């Protein structure tokens, strides 16, 4: 047990060292500063995907994360632009707003299962886009543009985070922000999954009626899991809006929602860190294939089909089979 | 008002035919075929090539669309979906496969046919104009053909040996297998038929709305809507869902015109409320 524990701690330390020290060092020595943006996107997308993963964990196929990412982005953008809030304050507010909205939406639709839930959440993404087009506060198809960069954050006169606009390298700052949030997010996920609630969620995934008959409050658990999931979506959407300094109704569409789901599948539905790996592989795979020009989508989707045939339980299932054999 | 209803019926017949294919595949395999809209587009482009480019009769083109898609569907079932369903721990994994095939078709269509909007010459000229209804003859022909296909499909499912086997499969896979139904074979036939229906509708509609490589996704979403309204995996539900959506679209576009482009927003919102009251759609079974 202790050996196992030590290995885990070592893995976490190694991971933190890589993302916080090794990657920035490697980037600054190689001069590939564009990689910051890519990696920031991966970190943020994996936060949203982690949310989707959590809904998979209670046995629901969620293709609606794009709706909450869009909502989070708009909440943050509107609060910053129209009400002059600090970005740092809007970040949790955007998450909580999405969580609250997801409770209202989730109470009726979480009764649905399987494909029905999948299709309703898919529709939800479209609803969010159409709402963003139709509502006056979201400024229609023109979107909200030239959102200022996040300002300084100080508590009791002590500056914790400097003003992003004054920084020489705001890309690095965004990278650190995104990665920090990603680490926190996955720590929360890990803790959640390995807690009592996590076990209860797993019981939902297997048999809701049985769980309910033993006394598990399934309605409450479902809503909680969905709210946490949407919170992640909202936070990642809000940071995306801040990075690109703009948000449009087409910022997050059905394709994004589907991609969030694919990230989870690719990493493996049975593994907490699946979404992180899945996002990294899919995003970088897409980027690398850019050189193939018009065949990009063909190769990308072809590889995805092959991967699905070879490893239908996700990339992380590879580690499991080798361990079993060895 | 008559005009609105006529438009709704015409749209509904098309939609019902699209939804039938999707619901058939779902009923047999429990697979939500994300690539359904792409299959429709592919069927449209095949008809465009055979009828519009090569100048062969429309019937031949329609046949070509149907047969090609049926073959593609059968191959997809045999080599992709069957394998993944067998190897995967969780049934949902087929969704990744379905989404990947949708992307794949999108890429193939884009490479083969380009991104331009394509249309073909009208199959019948002239416009019907009587009793307050204005409708081009080709729309009437296409609508009627769609209804004929729907009727043929329903009769086939009801009375033929293959249809009976597929219905048994949809009801209870294991029981059907125990009764000696060759599950693998009929799954493949079902998938092929579903794909064929998508191809045929694509071929029919290319004569009216034309086709372009980008409409696959939106068509899939519409097909999902219809299936949800009617209830997934039920033939009657798909037909009802198709006509209801067609009617709502037609009425919505007229009534809500002054509020801007909000028809689909209203339809989506209504659907979510409806589903929270009736989670299995109009006729769906309590699973899914």
Automatic annotation (TrEMBL), chain A:
Origin, by domain of life? Bacteria
Regarding the membrane, this protein is recorded as: Multi-pass membrane protein
Xref: CDD domains: TM_PBP1_LivM_like
Q: Which GO terms describe its cellular component?
A: plasma membrane
Tell me the compartments it is located in: Cell membrane
Q: Where are the transmembrane segments?
A: 35-56, 63-81, 87-107, 114-137, 143-161, 173-193, 223-248, 260-286, 298-319
Gene Ontology MF terms: branched-chain amino acid transmembrane transporter activity
Asked whether the UniProt record includes Transmembrane helix among its keywords, one would answer yes
**What are the protein's UniProt keywords?**
Cell membrane, Membrane, Transmembrane, Transmembrane helix
Q: Does the keyword Transmembrane helix apply?
A: yes
Question: Which PANTHER family would you find in this protein's record?
Answer: HIGH-AFFINITY BRANCHED-CHAIN AMINO ACID TRANSPORT SYSTEM PERMEASE, HIGH-AFFINITY BRANCHED-CHAIN AMINO ACID TRANSPORT SYSTEM PERMEASE PROTEIN LIVM
Name by which UniProt lists this protein: Branched-chain amino acid ABC transporter, permease protein
Q: Which organism is it from?
A: Mesorhizobium plurifarium
TrEMBL record, chain B:
Annotated membrane topology is: Multi-pass membrane protein
- Specify where it is mainly localized: membrane
**Swiss-Prot/TrEMBL keywords:** Amino-acid transport, Cell membrane, Membrane, Transmembrane, Transmembrane helix, Transport
Give the InterPro entries listed for this entry: ABC_transp_permease, BCAA_transport_permease
Q: Name one GO cellular component term.
A: plasma membrane
Q: What is an example of a GO molecular function annotated in this UniProt entry?
A: transmembrane transporter activity
Ranges that cross the membrane:
12-34, 54-75, 96-114, 134-157, 188-211, 223-247, 259-277
Q: Which GO terms describe its biological process?
A: amino acid transport
Q: What is this protein called?
A: Putative branched-chain amino acid ABC transporter, permease component
Q: Which organism is it from?
A: Mesorhizobium plurifarium
